[in-house]
Queue: 2 jobs
Job 1
Amino acid sequence: MAHGPAKGIGRWLFTTNHKDIGTLYLWFSFAMFLLGGFFAMVIRAELFEPGMQIVRPEFFNQMTTMHGLVMVFGAIMPAFVGLANWMIPMMIGAPDMALPRMNNLSFWILPFAFALLASTLFMEGGAPNFGWTFYAPLSTTYAPDTVNYFIFGVHIMGASSIMGSINIIATVLNMRAPGMTLMKMPMFVWTWLITAFLLIAVMPVLAGAVTMMLMDINFGTSFFDAAGGGDPVLFQHVFWFFGHPEVYIIILPAFGVISHIIPTFSRKPLFGYSSMVYATASIAFLSFIVWAHHMFMVGMPIGGELYFMYATMLIAIPTAAKVFNWVSTMFRGSLTFETPMLFAIAFVILFTIGGFTGVMVAIAPSDVQYHDSYFVVAHFHYVMVAGAVFSGTAAVYYWLPKWCGRMYDETMAKLQFWISFIGFNITFFPQHFLGLAGMPRRYADYALQFSDWNMVSSIGAFIYGSSQLLFMFIVIRAIRSGKQLSEPKTWEGAEGLEWTVATPAPYHTFTTPPEVK
Amino acid sequence: MSTKPVKKTLVKLLISAVGMFLFALFVMPPLYDVFCEITGVGGKTGDAYQVSDAGVDNSRTVKVQFVATNNGAMPWEFTPKVYEVTVHPGEPTEAVFYAKNRTSRDMVAQAIPNVTPFNAAEYFHKTECFCFNQQPLKAGEDAYLPLVFIVDRDLPRAIKTVTLSYTLFDVTDRVDESLTQLN
């Protein structure tokens, strides 16, 4: 057996071990989650009552922008890369990732990217204030000077994501245990394989978009400047060509996690495995041909509006196939409701609500009403928070016992689930009403008729926010003093290679590949 | 652990990533321009048009409206001299816009044209236009800016009214930059 981890800080700085790097990713993403959450609290505190209370409108704009950027690129994406690092080698019976040194690099450039981004908060001119979608010319002609820090930050996180994806693809394609054919791979591995291809296809496009911004701002080109013959609408096309696959990059690994947890606590194999694989692949393909549904209001010809509307609604079909498969997996199963399962079921219900509102905003003629309103904010928080974040939380509860060989406090975790679930819905459900009543997003103030639901939403946000501190407490307490476990299987219904290794998972696993029948 | 197949995968994926970056930078913007030019989406009009001797279609008339807008805080006075003309397709017509630099500094402007409805854009030709060049005006100076256009005989019959809109951008800084770069 090979040696264990090195001592001291060097273990973390120079590590090439997939479990160490996975841990780093997970802690980093949680730190970013708290930072982005803090920004969200500032937003909700300001919107608690109409009028200007706590921050200036300029700062409010910085908060909405930074909240979006930090949550998407700093919290959710690295969280799932962390899970991939921890779980993929263990799930496919590989000793480590295929390119361990690149793995170290792709993690360690991330803190620098976010240091660049966060440092702009303390600079003259303030942080980026043009929304997380950074539409030109807001992000070029009218941007604060700190936009250059933002651009380099995005370049670095793009490089990190691309390296991480290359690593995942190289691992999955080359290092599976003998006998594990592609169609025998666990769903989490499948969803990540497809996600990694999406990342390699679109992260460079994002890098291209910010590079064009950089040149427009500093080198006198006019990609997005109408005065020089460019077109700001081009920016939106390039951005959403990245941006739409990006939302599936966030949600597909979450689908993978749920496809493990539901069978475990239903004590039945996943219903319709191969249809799950094909549905994932179809969603990934469709994500490339629907981008302009984010831009129904730019003045597209009617043919374009219709095409993007129908193509978008098509995505509901493979997504519904997945939801039905999860429900069918639970049907007549011997269900128990441990915390991961609670989060998984909440995921299925709330994600489906988010999916339905997604179909609503996909309908071009009615999108005229929803566009840039709080309805859209409610929609994407149902899929991003109740989708990706709930799934990530479920994954941590599900695999934490395997990672550290200690059990979390089930009672407290269930309490945390219910506080999250209720807090989340109090926060975001009223935003549907606000949006339908016409409240626009991204403003620091609002008309008086929106006061009541905004106050409710803010109260919900404080509840949901505090439930995340409870989550941190539960996890830290489990790691330090949770009940020790030794059985390989924490959950009796769990299947898969990761549950065949000792608990806690040894520093090196599968140095000799297992045989998969 | 970097075995041969892993390296092969790595190289392929790296090339794809770099390829997508170059695609975004060098293919997407020109592709978008070509797409807009062919379909007229965005209402962009073409460069100077060479008059072809196709004759005038006297059987119908098209109303052409003129709109002048200042972009952002552009302080010039900028209006069409005539707001609307009625023309026969194929007939070269002159229109004049008036611009006055009301500030106390020398400025350079660029007018960007746009045609509505967008499917008229490819049938709206300009043989002469102040928008082909930048327009410098000294402090307090004014000018009449000429434009000669032809509405194509092939303009779909359903279109009875075409709106030509100019947005005036302040490009003084842009010009100064290129001058300092030259010096």
Note: Residues 20-499 of chain A form a domain with the Cytochrome C Oxidase; Chain A fold (CATH 1.20.210.10).
Job 2
Amino acid sequence: MNRILNKFLLVIASLAGYCVLTPNAQAQFRVEVSGVGLTQVPVGVATFRGEDSSPQKISAIVQADLERSGLFRGVDTTGVNLDENSGPDFSSWRKRNADALLTGSVSRLADGRFDVRMHLWDVVKGQDLGAKSYAVVQADLRLAAHEIADYVYEKLTGDKGVFSTRIAYVTKRGQGFNLWVADADGESPQSALASPEPIISPAWSPNGRQLAYVSFEARKPTIYVHEIATGKRRLVANFKGSNSAPAWSPDGKTLALTLSRDGGSQLYLLDVTAAGSEPRRIAQSSAIDTEPVFTADGRFIYFVSDRGGSPQIYRVPAAGGSPERVTFSGTYNISPALSPDGRWLAYVSRISGAFKLHVMELSSGNSVAITDTIADERPSFSPNSRMLIYATQQQGKEALMTTTLDGKIKARLAGQTGDIREPDWGPFQK
Amino acid sequence: MKRTLVVLGVVALLSACGSSVKLDNVPVEDKSSSSLGSKSGAAAGGADGAGVGKGAVASVDLNKAAQDAAMQGTTRVVYFDYDSFAIRPEFQNVIVAHAKYISADKSRKVVIEGHTDERGGREYNLALGQKRAEAVRKALNTQGVSDAQLEAVSFGKEKPAMAGATEAAMEKNRRAEISYR
């Protein structure tokens, strides 16, 4: 009952938020748990005192964040009246089967900002896990909630949370295209670019300040680097033929990309620190080579090639050398994404005509399909390597999903009108 | 000869609201309208506000337009079989007609735009569309057209000629378009 209410409040809250931010955007994120994780920490997220008069329902946002990660489940907190100063009755929370309890409050400061306070408790050990406060403008209330969720996530799992990170994606509405930057839960989308021509392959720079992408505004694919905060755009690749598939080196100085200027789709490295630099060719072949992506240590580039007769994933040393094949089963394996911790490769494989997201453990080479959809595209890892975002189709409509790496907990970015695609998960905020 | 001028009013509408400062101090704004004003401006100037100035006069060459009209009786679209990059025999006369026309005036510039159906990944389809465009470019080369007049580019699956996932639609979408610029 409370869960349903929370979700309802979340929707209302998000609708209210959009009127202020972007009148065109109606995205809203609903957690749709489609499987059951083995070990989920039960957490009580008490309604924050003062939340009723706050434009954002902090506790609902925190709980949805935690549940979407697959590592937590919300414990019923109906009728609870606590804030960050309350000394909770641990035995009653143990009876509710909660392992942890989050309390807090939201109040308005004299200068119009909001004071958000939180307190986290380990119910099992009866321990204080710390308190924090955030003084934020109204537009940053959701960000404060995401940072609280990150705090809870890190205290209870030992890993950094990704709820305060951002994602980029593309929508198509009628004949128009938009590149959006949104919270990791899909809320608060802001348009970084509107264009009458397609936009594909957005890629966050390692510092999270720029997006590289392919734009067709010149009636051919060219690559831009776009500074998010200022809107300043730089055309970095407009060579004869097609320019596509930009991927950043970990130091942010080089883009790997696909150019057809010398015939065929081939891989190049481009120094983006100096204007007009000459691309250097890597992994030469007479076949299609595309979709390059750097390993986190920058030593290798994974890419797609049909040099063996069908598209498969290969890797080549970034300094040059001979490519080695990575995928061996199936006749269509594309769109490689590497987890920042170097352990996992996500990719899309066609199986009996269905395009399905797969995750491979690189050390063993074992690979599993983790979706039951048939038109999956373009996976991207969360910066803590625990989740993926990808594009797919549900009931014939384009959709963005997040999933845990085992595929058990999925959440859908719902409500965007028109088609939604090409997600890329940004880095940790600096 | 088509000239399109696109005004992005939506941009102004979107940027009018939400100039909030984030906790992390990285606000997202949209200032793209200045460099996206028109197709020619974007192509020539690219980023950083370079491009067509206020006093600029766009030159329209009616002579050229009239010449291009001469080719309107000939199809500009070459269709391909599924997973194929081979030009079917029935399109050979289309290639020959365009080759003759392009070769007749060395100032003519032609872009061959490759397209695919909607199945599969966007970037891989872009590479497949490129193969189709290059197949047509090579066929024009074979007929004596100079490479300097030709550019092969791909739209992948981004610009379908016909919407929908039917076989009929997909047949119409696996194509290369010969575009006079």
Note: DSSP finds six helices and four strands in chain B.
